[in-house]
Amino acid sequence: MRFLIVFLCLLSMPLAAQTLRLGVLSYQDRPDLVYRYQPVVQELNQRLQNIEITLTVADYEAIQTGIESHQYDLLIVDPTLYLWIRSRDSLSSVMATVFRSRNGESTSRYGGVVVVRADRATQISFTALDQYRIVTPSTQFWGTYWAQYYELFSRGLPVPSAQQVTSLGTSQATVTAILEGNADVGFLRTGQLERLIDRGVVSSGQLQVLNEQRLANYPYHTSTRLAPEWPVIALSHVDINAVRAITSALLNLSPENSTIATAGISGFVPAVDYLVVEKAMRELRLAPYDFEDQLNIVVIIKTYLIGILALVLVFLLLLIGLFTFKRQSNALAKAVAKEQKLRKEQDRHLQQLGYLFASSPSVVYALNPTTLRAHFVSANCMTLFGISAEEILATSDWWINSIHEADRAKVIAQMQRWRESGYHGSLQHTYCMQTPNGWIWVEDILNGIRNEDHVVMDLVGAHTNVSARKEANGKLELAASVFENAREGIAITDVNGCILEINGAFTRITGYKRNEIIGKNPRILNSGRQPASFYENMWQQILSLGFWEGEIWNRRKDGVIYAQYLTIAAVYDGQRKVSHYISLFSDITQQKENEQQLAHIAYFDALTGLPNRSNLTRRLVSEMQTADGTNQRFALGFLDLDGFKEINDTFGHDMGDLLLVEVAKRMRATANKSATVARFGGDEFVILLQQQDDEIEAERAYQQLLSAIGEPFRINNIDLHVSASIGITFFPQAKEIDADQLIRQADQAMYQAKIKGRNRLCVFNIDQESNLIEQHRLLEEIQLGLERDQFSLFYQPKVNMKTGEVFGYEALIRWLHPVRGCLAPGQFLPYVYQQPLELQLGEWVLRTALEQLHQWRLQGYQQSISINLAGFQLQQPDFTQRLADALVGYPDDVAKGLELEILETSAIEDLAHVSGVINSCKELGIQISLDDFGTGYSTLSHLKELSVDMLKIDHGFVRNMLESEDDLAIVKGVIGFADAFHLKVIAEGVETQAHADMLLALGCELGQGYLISRPIPPHDVLNWYGRWTNQTKPSH
Amino acid sequence: MLRISLVVTLLLALLIGVYGRAMWQQTREPVVISAHPWPGYESLFLAEEFDWLPEGVILQRSNNATESIERLRQGVVDVAALTLDEALRLNEQGTPLKIIVVMDESIGADVVVAQPHVAGLEELAGMRIALEQSAVSSIVLENLLRKANLTQDQVHLILRTPDQQNYGWSFGNYDLAITYEPYATTLMQHGGKRLFDSRQFPGMIYDVLVVRDDLSWYQQMVVSDIVAAHFRALDYIRVNREDALRRIAAWRAVSYSDTQAIFSGLYLPGLDSNRDLLSPDGPMATAIDWIQSHLLQHSLPTTERDRIFDDQFLPVKP
What we know:
heterodimer, A: D-Maltodextrin-Binding Protein, domain 2, D-Maltodextrin-Binding Protein, domain 2, Beta-Lactamase, 6 domains, eight-stranded mixed barrel, seven-stranded mixed sheet, 38 helices, about 45% helix, B: D-Maltodextrin-Binding Protein, domain 2, six-stranded mixed sheet
């Protein structure tokens, strides 16, 4: 607490008067630079009380010497020098960092620039700067040397050597040296190049920057990454309160202050971190980081003491282990050698015995009764079994292991019983034995050899090869096994058809057991599905060809009827007479069902269960044949959902699929029972309505489908709104036509319905076909024109014919067609009538006119622009919303300059909607005029309802009014109308002075037409305006 | 004795020959990264600009996350930058992968903007909320409703991507919009106010770097180097922020000041923070459990879930 009070007192205490010495770093010892920083110092002194700052400008070495001798209190230096100072006076602190601005962008970072003469830019590469003569204001500074050096270094490029580089003291000298060819490459700090260009020392085209970095909004060229600008440093001995006061004054220096600008800087920002420079200097080993890291053995031992101790311990343990192991292995080796000697002796005895048995047809062997290990085998095993006696004796458990796995358990069991009987008599068995030549059947006879005490010491056996005998038996067994295990049912009958034998599969398939069927005739399986003639043909073929095969329906024992594939073959005896019949059959019921299922998949859509394309085509063909015969008509509708893709894109395909299922259900429920609803794939459906003699009735049926689909679908708790377009065609037609053509007609009509604005029916019209193609081509061209910016707005001036004042322009669209030249609206607008493209064009006109207005406003030009609205555009429910969207981002005066021209005819077509639109436009500040007035038979009440600002008299009436009394009367009438409703009125089609005079006489002052000007391309409007105002000025 | 040592030497030479060849071949396989433009992933592009990515690494620019996912699924790329939920979904769909770095966490970049008439969270019942069909939007919605003590049936949801939301906003077609920068700013310029944002439920929305689980030992070493390069780039953004942001702004063709604003809604976790996030009981595990229970069809058992984190690729602290 006491400390806090002291601290607060210190803060509030006025500073004792003191003088602080500020050193500013410069390339050379140039006292003249004092003049540049002096205004900054003066400004600071004025703001500081009791502190007087004096200024010294000094070069790198002078500042270093000054620091050593404590001559400075404050410093403004390069970051490299700051880090050097910090390593000496570690408590020195950065008070602020310099910042600079140019073109409204400011930055407290800088870097290095590498420049070459522009004409040599292609020869000199940044990646090989070590081959050129380099000049710089100074090699000591970050911005003029080390930034460039570090950029090369960190990118692994060759760095310049000391001999290549010359310091010239100033940036101007550096640039001059390059321009005069005395050097190839110049290193500058960021900002110097721009300053030299501003001062006219060098023009911007003369020098080229190498390795230019792409940095957004950075006000200078730079060739390197950025580092913090120069710091303002207070050395540690400066009083903390003075530091606070000076820091505050520095940060308060305003960038607008012209005194700062003389120093080439814009002011100061709070101190930034110099870690970037420090890291770079450490990498480059620049002073003060130029020491080598030395390995110190003491440090290593200290650091890794535990590790080293552990290593020594492990090493000792290893040594002990090795010694013990050696002693043990010696003892073991001696024992093994002794035993081997004994074994060899024994083997020799047995071998001798073996020769005695060599001539036997059987292999004689002896087993140990307990282990069953062979300790003798007669040598003839080599000739009989192909295996040497040594090998057998070396194999433990040879006797057991050579028995085939299938026999082994049985043999062991017999052996066990024999052993329990005290090896009574001899043990004889036949089994399969493994030899190197493969499996052979052997007969094995074993006898026990007893000693004096009648104890069995050895079992002596003899193996005899009985394979040949076994093989003959095996074949018979195989045949029986095939018969029994076959998957097919097999029955053998005698010549009268009486069943003699059946197999297991027969019972499984038919349900009859063996005892129930033997002796019976296969007739009891007859299902009755095949006529008697079928069996007659079958037997005829068996008798003549000896066999029959085919599918047949039979009845199981439980009465179930099943399908089987049956083969019957006759078996002949030695006299070529039939002795038996064999019938072989498999159950193919499952296969039949699968076939039916496949047929369903082939003809029905998997998702919706509706008939698919091929099914529909099949039905269509048959329907067309019926219609041809009976002369009854039917209707074919092609339906495509509108906006289905958007639903897929927004909610995912799963959702889309669910929707399709629901749509299918709803169509099925809505359509007549006799109608065929098929899915063609994607969101396309085809609906075939039979017996539709009345086209109106058919259309009504399709209309019902449209209404049904128009109701919202609720799927996964989301309401989806879709509509559909249907194209309809009828059959028969005057021309002969096939099913595919019929579908294509309906498809085309559907496409018509789409381009007419979706959610509607369209009946196919033969004449459409060719027109459609032509129109489609043109629409594509217009679309392309929009994308390629081939459209332009021309502006026809609207003037007050009395005063000559220009008060606005009517924007008129032109198509600058690459081949057909400049096209007037009449040449392409009719083709887009009531199509989505018409809306796109309208939107384009609106946005282009707004942008033009905005440009004019920026140039101080206040005229308005009127644009023509198509009726279709006006009728869009979201018209007001689109208009508001287009206006977003523009100032209010742009909206106020916009005027919409609505055709009188389209206005009275949907009076309520249009009057709503007009009212919302008024709220946005937009003016409305009624175009071609006089052609639409508006009544007074209409005019009252539409609160427009201006009426435009159609040019047809104006042009002819001098000749035609009727037209003149209409013009007069309109002017009278306008007068009565206090509306402005303007005449279109003012072509001659006579027209103008007449209109003025009638009281209509505003006009537009060729007399005043043709529509003008956008870039000429201001020129025309200049000429027009000059020309009309003298008249009033 | 001499013969045995000769045989052993020959065998060793053979082994070294065979394995060495296989190893050398492995070192020729490049490692391919896929990332799309997003502030959280700029460190990768920065590392590329300064040549910090290891040799043999190819950084592919994709236009959006979907492209990166598809490339990863096909095995054309080995490493990709994705949102956490995308990574989990991909893993669930049978592309085994590991999350090796957390690139960024949204702390305010995902925003709920309200029309001026909405006074506060307590009156959200019955309101119309525009949102995108995405995991991140679901997370924001869930947290918004939890905070407001409501269930999903008590509000009306209108599906609109953020770039479409502006359209109906001025006409008052919805009361709230779940959006993100820069669209959020646009709505606020049209009178909207910030009602709720991801800063209020930290630890939910992450972008991560994932690696396929079938890389060779050599590729794994390269991936470690890529991760190191990412942290080096993060460090560069920290110590030389102005330089880094001006570079990023230049290649994204936006202004420097806009770039500063974009980075303010993101938290770019450093090495230590990554170690915490990637630990099996860290905050990411909570986020994963939430995403699994709300957005995925199956949940991984805890052991499987923990297996998806892998902090082996993070550089060892010096």
